[in-house]
Amino acid sequence: MVDLDPVTLSRMLTGLTLIVHIVFASIGVGVPLMIALAEWRGIRKNDPHYTLLARRWARGFVISVAVGVVTGTSIGLQLSLLWPTFMRVAGQAIALPLFMETFAFFVEAIFLGIYLYTWERFKKPMIHLLLLIPVVLGSSASAFFITSLNAFMNAPQGFTLKNGVFAEFKPLVAMFNPATPTKVSHVLASSYTASAGLLAGIAAYSLLRGRKEAYFKKALKLTVISTFVFAVSTAIIGDFSGKFLAKYQPEKLAAGEWHFETTDRAPLIYGGVMDESGSIKYAIKIPYALSILAGNSPNTEVIGLNEFPVDERPSLKIHYLFDTMVTIGGLLVLIPLIYMFRHRLSRKGNKRGYPKWLLVCLVLLGPLAMAATELGWLYAEFGRQPWIVRGYMKVAHAATTQDTVGYMIILFLALYIVLCLSCVKVLAKLFRNKDVVEEMRELGIHAKGGMKP
Amino acid sequence: MSYEVVGITILWTFLFGYLIVASVDFGAGFFSYYTAVVTRHENKVHNIIQRYLTPVWEVTNVFLIFFVVGLVGFFPDTAYFYGTALLVPGSLAIVLLALRGAYYAYNTYGSSKENDKIYMTIYGATGLLLPAALSTILALSEGGIITETNGKVRLDWIQFFSNPYTWSVVILALVSVLYISAMFLSYYAKRAEDQHSFELLRRYALFWSGPTILACVFVFFQINRQNPEHFENMLNMSWMFIASLICFLIAVYFVWKKVNLGWAFVLVMLQFAFAWYGYGRSHLPYILYNQISIYESFTNETMAIALIIAFIAGLFILIPSLILLLRLFLFDSKYVRGHSPKKG
């Protein structure tokens, strides 16, 4: 591994950090919203089950935030340690959102600290809920700022390049580039989906293990319906992202869809495998679908990959990433939909509870939603290759020249393994030691109905 | 003031914030470990420390990130020189910060009733290793150790470790961390009306005050050997260092007499502020001696203005939030004394 060049190694280490960080970052963005939803429902319906739900989620949330903070610190510093030339040049155009992100995180951290320690400090429970709003806004703003940096790398603007010198920088123009709207909304929606899906998976797991308390059923209902709503919005925004790509980054779309010749009425290739010679087997061809994805009409002309020089094309393998992401996205809509129909039916007299196969599917929502997020990011990053700033700077020219990156990969791999394993262990212990029923008894909540006696 | 000076002043102020908050945190980790694991005192001192740290630990890290991101934003060349040279030490510092942060949260928010020995050790050890590691960057900034040849930036490890200046800075960092932390915690213990912890922490504070001032003097003269140009600049603003010394003497006197402990800590902050800004001001215009000057390595003007505006706007949100945090926890005597309900 140490024999590889610093550029490849820097890409590997950045990828490693991001793969770990994205899980915790998505939780960090989405779970506060879910906590707020649960606490709000608890106050509005005067149902202590939901309040307890918010409280227990918050308790687990801090643990994951800690890992999110340290992996975020890690990527924040690695940007300069591994990509010094990129930061030196691109920093001139895009330092602003990075700078503002720290403020957003500051606000989030402060209010999360206050929120956790003030459950019974205010007479009106609504005041406590209000403390969560800066947390939700802060974490979503963090996502916005960081994603706008990534958007800039895909659709750079806000500067000029004359005789090899970058000049006339416009920070706001760079921040609000054409990729920003679709990218930011896609990241936010998918983070909400991933978080709701994860919490749904946990609730379903408890029911699968034979828990029958109303608490778990309420948790499941809230999280699954949220997953459905967020997954549908993620899909709709994904469609806009396709239109963005077709217009501003056609090579990414073309490589992802295996679309080579520029043409209208372009078919969409779903699935399939490509062999050595480049011929595609076992794929489903949906007529006109790619043109519709690119511009809402079968007559839209979609630019093919052949328009680009060979050394400026992303790998064709990203097709697999893209299609798997889309397939999982479909499941994230379908599984909650089945649950919702079933829930309807069981309310009309059928009181047997949920069938085992459905609960298994619901447990899978968590890992599936996380996998879709990871695949989406992998697609976005591999799809931008060979560029780090599309059209201006290649990855190969941006990395560090140090030859010790290989050892750092080993160091960080060990760190992340230790962090993740201990995080899971601590979380498991946290919830095992304090069972819901026991806690409800302590707080004087009835297990069945939910109201205080 | 030029944009360059405004920019570096903002950054230097954030690093000063980190110096104070993180010193309290680092030292607290060490004292916590020392009293609970080594001397097996009852856990009282540890509880005091825990109660202060819990709500603020996340805020500490942000000061550092803010400084790094801001430095790269205002002075992009720093990413190139320091970023390339510090790959290994920077990565090690990240690992230490990560272990410290994560294990702190695991222990505090996790379910274990008694404090884990492994955690206490990690927290205590990183409390000393981190200031040692981070302070070496100040030593590097005096120049001569980071070199650029044929477009490749390198760090001269042998010269780095064999340089007495490096070690004088490390020693100063360690003793100041323990001094600042003990000064703050004795004030906090007094507010919490915990006489026993107060007596113990006061003894620590007085004990570390001597080494702190000796280390300062040692560093002062090492700078002369390392970088006479910088030393010359420091002599030109010697009043700042004299003011620092006076603040130190009054602060120690207050703690000795057990009076005005709040003011004593304010004076400790002033002591370090005078020294910190004096050192920083005399270091200008260089961020890295002879390689990065604030004037030559500055970002474009539009970005500078944008960053300064963002900073001012950010302060409008930040300061009220920080005041709220402090009022709820640090200055709420009910919370400080431990009568408030536990975490959710």
TrEMBL record, chain A:
Location, primary (coarse class): membrane
Keyword ATP-binding: no
Protein family (similarity comment): Belongs to the cytochrome ubiquinol oxidase subunit 1 family.
GO cellular component terms listed in the entry, alphabetical order: cytochrome complex; plasma membrane
Gene Ontology BP terms: aerobic electron transport chain
Keyword Mitochondrion listed: no
InterPro entries reported in the protein's UniProt record: Cyt-d_ubiquinol_oxidase_su_1
Coiled coil: none
EC number of the protein: 1.10.3.-
Enzyme class: oxidoreductase
Name under which the protein is recorded: Cytochrome d ubiquinol oxidase subunit I
Superkingdom per UniProt: Bacteria
One Pfam short name: Cyt_bd_oxida_I
Keywords: Cell membrane, Electron transport, Heme, Iron, Membrane, Metal-binding, Oxidoreductase, Transmembrane, Transmembrane helix, Transport
Transmembrane residue ranges: 12-40, 61-82, 94-117, 129-153, 187-208, 220-238, 318-341, 357-380, 405-424
UniProt cross-references to PANTHER family, sorted A to Z: CYTOCHROME BD MENAQUINOL OXIDASE SUBUNIT I-RELATED, CYTOCHROME D UBIQUINOL OXIDASE
Localization terms from the record: Cell membrane
Gene Ontology molecular function terms on file: electron transfer activity; heme binding; metal ion binding; oxidoreductase activity, acting on diphenols and related substances as donors, oxygen as acceptor
Its membrane topology: Multi-pass membrane protein
UniProtKB/TrEMBL annotation, chain B:
Main location: membrane
Pfam families reported in the protein's UniProt record: Cyt_bd_oxida_II (PF02322)
Membrane topology term: Multi-pass membrane protein
The keyword Transmembrane appears for this protein: yes
Taxonomy, superkingdom: Bacteria
TM stretches of this protein: 6-34, 55-75, 81-106, 118-140, 165-189, 201-223, 235-256, 261-279, 303-330
EC numbers on record: 1.10.3.-
Listed GO CC annotations: plasma membrane
GO molecular function terms attached to this record: oxidoreductase activity
Cell membrane recorded as keyword: yes
Protein localization: Cell membrane
Keywords: Cell membrane, Membrane, Oxidoreductase, Transmembrane, Transmembrane helix
Signal sequence annotation: none
Coiled coil, from the record: none
Family the UniProt entry places it in: Belongs to the cytochrome ubiquinol oxidase subunit 2 family.
UniProt-recorded name of the protein: Cytochrome d ubiquinol oxidase subunit II
Lineage: Bacteria, Bacillati, Bacillota, Bacilli, Bacillales
